Amino acid sequence: MARITGRELKDLVGTFGVVATLAGLAFGLPAVDRAFSAERPLRSGIPVDVGAGVTVVPPSGATLDVTGTRPGDTMGSALFRLGAVQYRIAVRPFDGNLDTAATRLRQRITGTPGYQVTGSQLAVGTIGGLDGLQGGYTAPGRGGRYAVFVGDGLTIEVIISGNDLDLGRTLPQIEASTRTLRVDGTAR
Amino acid sequence: MISAEVRPGRAAALARVPAFWVVAALLLAGAVRMTLITARFATAYPIATVTAVLLFALLAVPFWWVVRELDFLEREPIELLVLAFAWGALVATSVSIPAGTAGENLIAKLGSPQLAAGWGAALAGPAVEEIAKTLGVVVIVLIARPQINSVLDGVVYGAMVGLGFQIAEDIVFAVGAVALAGQGDQIQPVIATFLLRGFVSGVWSHTLFGALAGAGIGYLVVRRDRRPARRIGVAVLAWLGAWASHALWNSPLLIDGLGNGALALLAVLVLKGLPPLLLILWLVRRAHDREAEYYVGHLATLRDPELITESEMRVLGSGSARASARRLAGESAGRAGRHAVRRLQRAQARLAVELSRASSSERHTTCEHIRVQRRVLRGLGHPEAIAGPRSWRHTASTIVTTVVAIAVLWVALSALGGA
Questions:
Q1: Does B128 sit within 8 Å of A22, measured CB to CB?
Q2: A30 to B101: CB separation less than 8 angstroms, yes or no
Q3: Which of A101, B171, B249, B371 has a CA positioned 20 to 30 A from the CA of residue A172?
Q4: Residue A24 is assigned to a structural domain of this protein
Q5: Where are the domains of chain B?
Q6: B22 vs B24: CA distance, rounded Å
Q7: Which residue ranges run through the membrane (chain B) (predicted)?
Q8: Are the beta carbons of B128 and A4 separated by less than 8 Å?
């Protein structure tokens, strides 16, 4: 077998330096990210900005997960946690009607392997006058609710997920929170 | 300055370099990761995934051709260009996906979710991606150091890494848009992404940023006549330039400042994308001229008009003059003349590179090849590959091409809702 020259050895060491840098990016940075808590306490009754001028009053006792919260000017999202239950709201520009928005959300849910929509949809509304549709879904080891609202050139999608026990305990609070969704349009 | 040592990097020679196998392992790991992502897409949205792969693969062809042609005189070995492209498409993307997400999360955690929403993509993405891509040029240096012998080589490899990254990212974005649309396996979101990321923002994307960072690595490696601190400083500055260009492009600046029409969108694209584009074009021009001067200087020592004439030396150093010479040959001696001039120019460029080496066993063969093409040209009544005067047809063709390019951009912007 041929011997490795000094130059080749130097290059090999350099290459391991490259590997180390890549490992730092791919594993080190996510490890640093995990070292910081993502959850922030919320003041009870104070509306939270979801993005694109949409606000919601979070359920009492919920925390805000900043890794799933991106309140932008034209679109945005907010992720709340109540114990093991996730309550996610996403806002995007949309020029269709409520049925189309609900169909698209259902397709996205069922597009994930193992996810099934259950039962029929029910009409829901918010205190601010937004009309919406809500339904349920099941997934391996968890289930949840979805709701979608359309108004002011936006679609507001709500996804709630958790196990049946936790959901049964928290759903009334979350549904009360969903009814506080409001579009003030100021961010756009 | 061009380093004297130039050695063809054939695949077998690469396989003998120990560091190459570390790079090969990284490429394999990246390939597995990207294959898993693509397979997941292909299972959920098979038609959209195939369409995205085909469209963006087609888009890569002209980019590849342009990047490869940047260094006409000393062409880079195909296996290293493929390696650079694969690094961008497989390794840099695989690393950037988790690192970019972690970076944005950290901005949200240490700053605020509002800051992450507005500036996360401008701060985290460029920092992570430009490091991962620049390392692609570094590994080319580590496994094939003799191939980096001009700043232009760094530009070519950097652009190729960027191109690989751009194409892989575009495919992921296109299928991601299909998933987000929630309309099943449709190709409309793929087409929209292709118009937006391919036509509208394709020119000033990763290929450009990669080229800028690659120029810095090229300078660091080649300019051994300069102090190490200066070489490192230039490399860092070039990387910062790539990062800043990328950050400016991703930033929310000017998003609402110029209105919502197609013209306003075009203005934003130009304001954000043109400065780095002009900078890299200037850099490429400068590096190209420097390299041309070096290689043509070697040819001048031959003093053999059978191999290259004075006029041909002036032509060989300029891309537009080479194209003009091929056009002139086409006009006076038809397709055969144009092809013979192309072959002659390639052989002359090869000879220039061989002359720059300490020793070359292929010099005699290359000289013979040039003489064969010279005889063909003489037989066609067009003995010298000189540039012709600028014809009205060429000027008209340039104007029409520019108008068509702007029209395509305009249609793309309008189709995306700009108008």
A1: no
A2: yes
A3: A101
A4: yes
A5: 11-289, 301-388, 393-419
A6: 5
A7: 12-32, 44-66, 78-99, 119-143, 155-182, 194-220, 232-249, 261-284, 396-416
A8: no
